[in-house]
Design a protein that fits this description.
This protein is mainly β. Helices cover 14% and strands 54% of the residues. The protein has 2 helices and 7 strands; from the N terminus they run βαββββαββ. Strands 3-2-5-4 form a 4-stranded mixed sheet. A 3-stranded mixed sheet has the order 1-6-7. The radius of gyration is 13 Å and the shape is globular.
Length: 98
């Protein structure tokens, strides 16, 4: 699995979220909604402290991560976090891992 944060998404995170020392932005699967590859589930995000990290990316001193407990949701896919200008919020694209 690969986690990518686009420059436009990174700009949004810098504008909207201030992280305290040791905190990061966690992505996880949540009930309701849909993604490119999930029906009835969508991507959630929260500011949290990493516990059992499956994957992490540090971008401009921001930590982004997915914990092992969410392997069921992301398994077999790469996640790209981009920015939706019309909604002024992150958007998520899943691609099969290679």
């Amino acid at each position: 699995m690969k986690l990518t944060i686009t420059p436009k998404a990174m700009d949004w995170f810098k504008r909207e979220i201030v992280l305290e020392n040791g905190m990061g932005i966690q992505f996880f699967g949540k009930v309701y909604g849909k993604t490119d590859v999930h029906e009835g589930f969508s991507v959630g995000l929260s500011v949290a402290t990493p516990e059992e990290t499956m994957i992490q990316v540090i971008n401009d001193e921001y930590l982004f991560f997915i914990d092992k407990g969410d392997d069921w949701f992301f398994k077999g896919y790469d996640l790209t976090v981009d920015y939706d200008e019309s909604l002024d919020e992150p958007m998520y694209r899943f691609n099969e891992s290679k």
